[in-house]
Amino acid sequence: MNHYALIAAGGSGMRMQSPVPKQFLLLNGKPVLMHTIEKFIAADSQIKIIVVLPDVEIAEWKKLCTSFSFTVAHLIVAGGASRFQSVKNGLEMIEDENSIVAIHDGVRPLATVELIRKCFIESANSGNAVPVIPLKESLRKKENENSVAVDRNNFHSVQTPQCFLAAEIKRAYSIAENDSFADDASVCENAGMKIHLTDGEETNIKITTPFDIALAELILRKQKTL
User: Measured between alpha carbons, how far is 22 from 13 in angstroms, rounded to an integer?
Assistant: First the structure.
């Protein structure tokens, strides 16, 4: 089966308190998005990469690729008004419905090669693979003016890459967008698919704040020494 990586890179710099979009911020001297793309190429040298960007940021991304001599082959697709629409635009570029698609956040540059490969393998066996990690903190649920404790063992934190058979994920995204869709797994679940969970990685963080950049630099340096 052919492999695709659909990288959704439509974030802004609002929570980062930066005018630069999060995916373009420098991480160890190179834009975050470049690190993300390189992880997928390292996992599968034949993978086909689709990068979905806001239309207004495509020109800047091309300039960055030139400035950093970034030559990894990838298709650039203009995103939509929401993540759902952006992913849908990316999926429309995939003609091979017998392939497997990994949908990944552009600002998760630390997913390991091992995690990426595992998600592809498990999705080939089970139809899909969604990485999750257990929660460490206690949880309380708000109920009107009160709150109640809930068992954290019943909940998981969801990560990407989320891998799916191309035909199934394209079918799932053929419906109208719904506010209840939290991620790609929830879109597939809405289409009647059973979601297969797999172990994620604590270091597979999503970069949204200045603290995340500092933490990601430490993790990246450690990964390079292993």
Answer: 5
Q: What are the tens digits of pLDDT across the range 196-205?
A: 999 999 999 9
Alpha-carbon span 104 to 36, nearest angstrom: 9
Contact of 170 with 98, CB cutoff 8 Å: no
Question: Which residues, other chains included, contact 121 with Cβ-Cβ below 8 Å and sequence gap of 6+?
Answer: 129
The tokens describing 90, both together, are 């990316």
CA distance 194 to 127: 9
Q: Domains along the chain?
A: 3-225 (3.90.550.10)
The CA distance from 215 to 211, in Å, is 6
> How far is residue 23 from each of residues 33, 53, 194, measured CA to CA in Å?
5, 10, 31
Listing DSSP states for 136-189 in one string gives: -S-EEEEETTEEEEE-GGG-EEE-S-EEEEHHHHHHHTTS---TT--SHHHHHH
pLDDT band at 145 (very low <50, low <70, confident <90, very high): confident
Sign of CA dihedral 84, 87, 92, 94: negative
Element (H, E) at 8: strand 3-8
How many beta carbons lie within 10 A of that of residue 180, not counting itself? Answer: 9
Are 54 and 127 in contact by the 8 Å Cβ rule? The answer is: no
Q: Is the pLDDT of residue 76 over 70?
A: yes
Q: What is the model's pLDDT at position 64?
A: 98
CB-CB contact of 30 with 219 (8 Å): no
CB 4 within 8 A of CB 196: no
